[in-house]
Batch of 4 targets.
Target 1
Amino acid sequence: MSKKLKEKSEKLDNIVANARNNKDEREKGYRERALKQYPWICGRCSREFTRENVHELTVHHRDHNHDNNPLDGSNWELLCLFCHDNEHSRYVDNDGRKHKPAGNTPDSNSSFKAFAGLADMLKSETDQDK
């Protein structure tokens, strides 16, 4: 391996190691605060945790921004590993759908109109009643 390539590789390794350390430090700070502020109960399935299994309780960022850690904890909720995984799966699954139009818009792929002609039917019924 050339000297230049080795230097670049070491530099990249240092950058990755620093990023991981920063992430670990950031997580340690908000995790400790969240565990002090909130009861050790999963916010979804209501499973209760003790000192023996609290490592299975995670801090979920409601807005999915791990850098948004307000002191009051308003962006956090405690979730068990399973519910946290489910929450992120739902977020990823719906990520591409959030900007698509819904309902009877011109961009909609569906041409079915459930109440087409209803006004005419109601009008003819009221005309017959008179």
Target 2
Amino acid sequence: MVIYPHEEHFHKLFDLLDIKRSWKPNNVPSHTMINEQDTTDELGSQQASCFRSAVGVLLYMSSDLVECQFTSRHLARCMASPTTRAWDILKHLVCYMLGRDE
């Protein structure tokens, strides 16, 4: 038996981050800068709220998307004060999910 997340969760992520479904999906879920120290600026309040909403959706979906769990966990640790790099990592992961949207 194979379990897939409902497509509405994918579409919500794409809409939150303004990712077009016509873009080419990334090949891997994790960004290359994920393990480096983050010294980038914090996001503004509106963008930080969008970040938190998207990470919440990812956490809900994470039990079905095992390959995304490491990156989702990293992003969840950034929820208190999300940064520009965390935003880039989030967009990278969601672009990876373009290929998973079924």
Target 3
Amino acid sequence: MMHVSRGFSIAVVGFVSFVMLASARPALADEGAPHMDNRARAQQLFDSALADAEAGNLASACPKFLASQEADPKTSTLLNLAACYEKNGQTASAWGAYREAEGLARKISRSDWESTARARAEALEPKLMKLTIQVPEPSRVSGLMVMRDGAHIAVGEWGVGIPVDPGEHVVTATAPGHAPWESRVSVRETMGTVAVPVLELLPPAQIEPAVTPPPDRPLVPGSWWTPMRTTGVVVAGVGVVGLVAGTILGLAAKRSYDDAFARCNNGAAGCPADAVSDADSAYAKANGATVVFVAGACFAAGGAALILLSPSAAPRSGATTVSRPSASLRVGPGSIGLSGRW
């Protein structure tokens, strides 16, 4: 098919026919300058719509004219869209498109297009079918939303006859806490009317209940046995055991040394060999006792510091049962063991 730019002319011979200007139409400044990608897409859609219209496939041609107009708005394309609607029997859509094209043609000083659009719109006015959506006062509940064919109907349109294309139209109404309502209306006469009824209230079970926060629980004082204090008590206990053990070992070492020294005549020079050996053993025991005593003192001091410096436990919410910490100390030959839970 020969490429045709998007010009417009129509001839009325029983039906509106699609005859395009063969010569290129110069672009008009006030019709905008869209991106070149959009312009190419609009031209391709226009050419395809024209081919469908010439083949009599108006159901496919009209949406393509509309898509071309949305991609690259031009008065000429809008006039072709209006003519397509008119020939397809969509009187309200055709009338609206002609009226819009009339205003746009006036802006770009195309008096021929303006007069053609005005004449076609005036010719369609006696054929227009109107649908009135009545919303009685009892039906106007809070949050009411009325729609026709998926488009919102403003409050100002309630009770007003609005031009619609012939055929079936779906009218719906919704409101919070109410069951939705829907009606299918077939408009074949000059005037159609549909009334929105009082919407049925939803049962309480179908309405989401408000979420109630749980009541505040009383605060319970925190336990004195914090992990830090428990550790301090255990460490201090180990220190006390060390102090006691060091004292006992020191006393035993002194007794052994005194017994060995008592067997000596004329001071250390007169000590027998067994007395010297027992004295050396007692000296070693004394050194061990000193180490154990000093370690016990360090552990006791560290445990006391942990107990005194431990912060108090924060109050707890509710009466939740909390297990108390516990610890046990095991002392054996040559070893000291600590186990517990906190």
Target 4
Amino acid sequence: MDKVSGTKSSGATAGRVRTPCIGVCSTGIGDAVCRGCKRFSHEVIDWNAYTEAEKAIVDQRLANFLSTCMQNKFTVTDSGLLRWQLETQQVRFNPRHDQYCGLFALLKAGASQISDTDAFGFSVHPPWRAHSLRELFEMVDYEFWSLSDAHHERYLATADLFSES
């Protein structure tokens, strides 16, 4: 039960976008992309001044990046079972995001406690089955940060080649 909204889901309230902050900000030590939430430093700084629409754009970019990284290593085989497990295990997740983001939340909360992935509605792609779920979570988290960093480098940190300056 979310203390703010009174709902049983992740705490995302209708019409409002929660901050993706997880309390492990690395932008304060000079990172252009936070290693915790994967937002760009200016997004962390300006978050409270953003409109809900601007927050939703950032939130969707992050969700898309995370989903892409998760799909490289996992397949959700039963989204209903996965959601049931998320709710039963009381794992905080954002119902606006896809099932792969929910799976990431599940692994973050207890990857080392899952021995039967079928019982949670997902499978690991064959090339990755030699790794523990905890190792896979760490790999995905790093890939998620790398994708955010590459996006930042490509679209924000690179000089505009078409400007007339």
